Amino acid sequence: MSISRRSLLNASLAFTASTAISPGLSRASTLVAREIISSTRLFVSQCIAGSTVSATFVDGIAAGLYHSNGQLSPPALTPVVSGSTFGQVVSDLEGARGSTVFALLSGEDAVLVNEGLRVVGAKVVSYGTHNANAHRFVTGSFCAGVGGIFASSLEAGVGNCTIDEICLGRVSAAPPRLVQSGSEWPFRLGYVLARSMSGGSSDVPASVLQEGWYRFPFDTDLVSVVSKI
Amino acid sequence: MNDSIILPEGLTKTAFAKAVEAFRGVVGADNVIVDLDRLVPYAKIMIPEDEKLHQPSAVIIPLSVEHVQSVVSLANQYKTPLWPISTGRNFGYGSAAPATAGQIVLDLRRMNKIIDVDPEMCTALVEPGVTYEQLRNYIEERKLPLWISFPSSGPIVGPVGNTLDRGVGYNRCGEHAANFCGLEVVLPNGELVRTAMGGVKGGSAWQAYRWGYGPWVDGLFAQSNLGIVTKMGLWLMRKPSASKTFTAVWNDLEGAAKGVNVLRNLRLNNVLENSLLGHLLYGVACDVPRNALYKGPGAIPDEVVAEIAKKAGAGIWNSLATLYGTEEQIAVNFKIVKEAFAPTGAIVLSEEEVGPNPVFQHWKGNMTGRPDLSEFGIYNFRGGGGSAWFAPLAPARSEDFKKQVELVKTTLAEFGFDYLGGFLIGGRHMEHVCELAFDRTDPEEMQRAYLCYDKLLQVNAAAGYAVYRTNTAFMNKVADIYGPAQKNLNRTLKRALDPNGIIAPGKSGIFV
Question: Which residue ranges does the record assign to the FAD-binding PCMH-type domain (chain B) (predicted)?
Answer without folding.
Answer: 52-239
